Sequence to fold (153 residues):
Amino acid sequence: MIIREPKAVCKKCGRSAPAKSFVLDHLCGMLVCPDCLKESKFQSKTSNDAISKMTSNIFSNTKIKPLPKAAAQPVQKPVEEVKRPAGWDSEDEYLERMHKQRDKLKVNFERLDESRIRYVCTKCGYKFVYHTEKKYPSACPNCGTSVITSVIR
Fold:
């Protein structure tokens, strides 16, 4: 008994190929056969080569004058020093950094009703509605960071 692989027809070119070999082509937005995939990769590679050749020709034809020595040196921006009170030391700087980190992790939410709150993700800042009774969603729909439920009551 001979087992044959199922074949499918490519929507882009109309050729048939084994169903296992079909791949998602992001340029077309659909599954295509391996031949179409090779063609699209070849076309994108040749178009990138053509663009790089055109840009190199443009820059080689234009005559660029060298910059004067004064302009060639990078301009140094004045560093703004934050004025600290007398007696400020490394321990105070450490405490300030820790306070800023703690503020970043602060859970922002606003209660819409008894069972729903508007939650702001601590990692990406995405705003979504969290159901306290259903405990849904358990993670941010945007980045997947788990919802901190210990603060929400």
Summary: The beta strands are 7-9, 16-18, 23-25, 30-32, 108-111, 116-120, 127-131. The first strand starts at residue 7 and ends at 9. Residues 47 and 53 are 10 Å apart (CA to CA). DSSP finds three helices and seven strands in the chain.
